[in-house]
Amino acid sequence: MSKFENITIEKKANLYFEGKVSSRTILFSNGTKKTLGVMQPGEYEFSTSVKEEMDIVSGQLKYKLAGEDWKSIDGQGVFYVPANETFQVKAQTVVDYCCSYLNE
Questions:
Q1: Has residue 82 been placed in a domain?
Q2: Which is the most buried residue in 1, 20, 69, 95, by most CB within 10 A?
Q3: pTM over 0.70
Q4: pLDDT tens-digit profile of 74-91?
Q5: φ and ψ of 25, to 5 deg
């Protein structure tokens, strides 16, 4: 899906790691929540409270889920992070992403 319609966007940016990772929250009428963001090159660690779908729209990214080896995305790709987990990423270029919060 290349665009979203009938959404609400929160004006205030979500800033992490001294602004090197930023996103905006978008809300859908059915209660679905996503964030659209950009990561500058660097290494970052995130924690989740719900299952997340990380949709990499562009860029080169390595990611490591708990108990797994490093995996790579070059261009576009998707990976899933279980609820209540910590995961690591290495953005090798500027990375454009969409994170979906999955209430399963």
A1: no
A2: 95
A3: yes
A4: 999 999 999 999 999 999
A5: -85, 135
